[in-house]
Amino acid sequence: MSLRRQLDQPWLLGLVGIFSLLLLWQLVAASRVVDPLFLPSPAEVLAAGAEQYQEGILLNDAVASIGRVLGGYALSILVSLPLGIAMGSNRLVCQLLEPLLGLIRYMPAPAFIPLLIIYFGLGELPKVLLIFIGTLFFNTLMIMDAVKFVPRELLESALTMGGRGLQIITKVVAPFIAPQVLDAYRINMAAAWNLVIVAELVAANEGLGKRISLAQRFLRTDEIFVGLIVIGLIGLLIDLGFRLLMRRTCRWAI
């Protein structure tokens, strides 16, 4: 395989970027320019991660955080998809709801934490609802915009061929906006992870955010790096999952 063809492989360039960062990290840590207390080496972080995995801590925390993210984000998807389509395809619904959603969208989601704790206590529900609240409005408005940009000629052609109402939405609008919807969900998934970490920092017995908070309290920077890297890896896998789903379902858009 030629060098040019190798460079055309996106995964290869991605690996080059990751290993370049790891090499730079190792060089800085080995030079002792930064106190090891504040910047442990990759090997020390790997050892801390292996220790947490053997004790079962890492897996339990990861499962707890993933469950909260998936629960809250699934609710956001279920509500935002029909709501966004309704707002994008119906002017009256849009005029009624867009100002309200635009208003709430600018309210920082973490600011709802005190209310969620007052209303629902310290269990799992407020954490799931925080993710739901923090991603719902962005997903809905992005879907609404995708629907609004469906070409008028396409809709007029469907009407000319006898299409009506729900049939146009399912047969014309949905296939057209599918790539944009999947991309919106892929992008906003990052917000879900930001919110679950915030929620776990405030009130949680387990989770990657809680583990990072405890590590900060005891100056265990190696464990902080473990939590951050695990979150990054999980996020990368989810991102790749969305990309694979788009390749499988929206081949015409790639």
Give short descriptive properties of this protein.
2 domains, MetI-like fold, mainly alpha, 254 residues, globular
Walkthrough of the structure:
By secondary structure, this protein is mainly α. The chain is built from eleven helices and no strands. The chain folds into two domains: 1-33; 38-253, Orthogonal Bundle (MetI-like fold). Helix 4 runs antiparallel to helix 9. The relative contact order is 0.12.
Would you summarize the structure shown here?
With 254 residues, the protein is mainly α. 81% of the residues lie in helices and 0% in strands.
Secondary structure layout:
Elements: H1 3-7, H2 10-31, H3 42-54, H4 57-89, H5 91-105, H6 113-120, H7 125-148, H8 152-160, H9 165-202, H10 208-217, H11 221-249
The proportion of residues forming helix, as a percent range, comes to over 70%
Instruction: Please tell me how large the radius of gyration is.
Output: 22 Å
Global outline? globular
CATH class of the largest domain: Mainly Alpha
Task: Assign the CATH superfamily of the largest domain.
Answer: MetI-like
Could you name the ranges where pLDDT drops below 50 across 5 or more consecutive residues?
1-7
What structural class should be given to the helix and strand makeup? mainly alpha
Q: How many extended strands?
A: 0
What is the number of independent domains?
2
Query: What composes the largest sheet?
Result: none
* Intertermini distance: 24 Å
CATH fold type of the largest domain: MetI-like fold
Number of helices: 11
Reported CATH architecture of the largest domain: Orthogonal Bundle
SSE string: HHHHHHHHHHH
Which whole number gives the mean pLDDT?
A: 87
